[in-house]
Design brief:
This protein is an all-alpha fold and about 160 residues long. The chain has a domain of about 80 residues. It contains two helices and no strands. This is ATP synthase CF0 subunit II. Its main location: membrane. Keywords: ATP synthesis, Cell membrane, CF(0), Coiled coil, Hydrogen ion transport, Ion transport, Membrane, Plastid, Transmembrane, Transmembrane helix, Transport. GO terms for molecular function: proton-transporting ATP synthase activity, rotational mechanism; proton-transporting ATPase activity, rotational mechanism. It is a single-pass membrane protein.
Length: about 160
Amino acid sequence: MINSPLLFALYASNTEIEGGLFDFNATLPLMALQFIVLTFTLNFIFYKPVGIVLDERDEYIRNSLTTASASLLKANELTQKYEQELAESRKQAQKIIKQSQKEAQQIVSIKIREAQQDAEKLISEAYYQLNIQKEHALKTLENQVDTLSDQIKYKLLENQSLV
């Protein structure tokens, strides 16, 4: 072991320093060859399968997005179609309701007219019957008045003949 710095300097000057930063013997090309072989090996073993998996995943995502977009478009078209059909059905239902209301109003009007005609007929029949009864009563009264007047006349004449 070297205890003093002077001895160390003497020892270092006697020993020859080989290599340096770059050593151009057989190790440099061997290291370059190892690096290239390692690069190709890693490329075939790790990077290509990972790349294939990533490409497959990308393709799957793209297909899924395309399918989802197509399904969304189809759903939107169906929604619009059904909304239009629903709107048409509502319009037809409104037409049917209006038509039914018109028909019901016409039926009610006809029934009211018939009821009014029946009432007028009943009134005219009652008026006619009352007139017949009135005529009959007048005739009966007239006969009674004639009978009473004849009786009064007879009694008056009888009374005058007695006096």
